[in-house]
Amino acid sequence: MNKPNDGYPPLRVRRWPEDGAWPVVAENLLIAAVNSEKTPNRAAARRLVRHAIADILALHLSCPPADIRLISTPGQALRLDLAGTAIGLSVSHAPGLSLLAIHLTGPVGIDLMPSVTTPDWLAVIPRLAQDYLGPQVAAQLAALPLDEQAASFAAAWTRLEASLKCRGIGLNEWHTAPQEALHHCQSFPLCLPAGLIGSLALPAPKSASQNL
Predict the structure, then answer these.
(1) Which end of the chain is more exposed for a tag (fewer CB within 10 A), N or C?
(2) pLDDT tens-digit profile of 125-144?
(3) How far apart are CA 152 and CA 83, in angstroms?
(4) How far apart are CA 17 and CA 100, in angstroms?
């Protein structure tokens, strides 16, 4: 695939609250998975994730969870209600599991999706790839054996979505904005349970993005 997750090794995803507190990893990044109900209705999952974010940030900011206030606006990323903060937040949901990413020093994007292999889904992958991932990725997917296309599509799709979230851009059909989001972000695959694929995106170093 075209620069699949930029060639980085998969990032570990901690379970919350099972794994408890953990040190901030490289890039001042915290990634956690929260179990949720296996239902397309995301209301309960959103509540669980917001509680998890409050608990985790409270540990790292040394304050009570009640002091962590989040701003949720439809169509926009979840934000921390704290003046002058550079902390970036991103969440993604799939039935049974939600992911959250906290970047203590800037924007972040995270995305998650099941790797579906039903005939109906495999039949729509070529059109979705052409419309949203671009002709180059669509051609690369079409050249793969059928049993590899679902996982490769999910990897490319979550990489795009994570990059768009990191850049604060909504999903649109393939054009300049998605390409620029990918060029200005570095993305990482995530270690997730079988059947789930996810990506995380951070702003690319300025020297790298300027050379693209």
Answers:
(1) C
(2) 999 999 999 999 999 999 99
(3) 40
(4) 12
Q: Which long-range contacts (CB under 8 A, 24 or more apart) does 65-73 make?
A: 72/46
Q: Which residue has the tokens 């768009």?
A: 164
* DSSP character string of 24-74: -BGGGEEEEEEE--SSS--HHHHHHHHHHHHHHHHHHHTS-GGG--EE--T
Q: Is residue 26 part of a domain?
A: yes
Amino acid letter at 93? H
Residue span of the structural domain in which 164 resides: 4-205
Question: Residue 191 and residue 63: Cα distance in Å, rounded?
Answer: 30
Q: Which has the closest alpha carbon to 197: 166, 171, 172, 160?
A: 160
Residue 210 lies in a domain: no
**For residues 57-96, b (16+ Cβ closer than 10 Å) or e, as one string?**
beeeeeeeeeebeeeeeeeebbebeeeeeebbbbbbbbee
Nearest partner of 182 among 152, 139, 212, judged by Cα: 212
Q: Is residue 13 a part of any domain in this protein?
A: yes
Phi-psi region of 54 (alpha: psi -120 to 50; beta: other; left: phi over 0): alpha
For residue range 22-69, what is the model confidence (pLDDT) as tens digits? 666 656 899 999 998 887 788 899 999 999 999 999 988 889 999 999
User: pTM for the whole thing?
Assistant: 0.90
Residue 211 within any structural domain of the chain: no
Q: Give the chain's domain count.
A: 1
Distance from chain centroid for Cα 84: 24
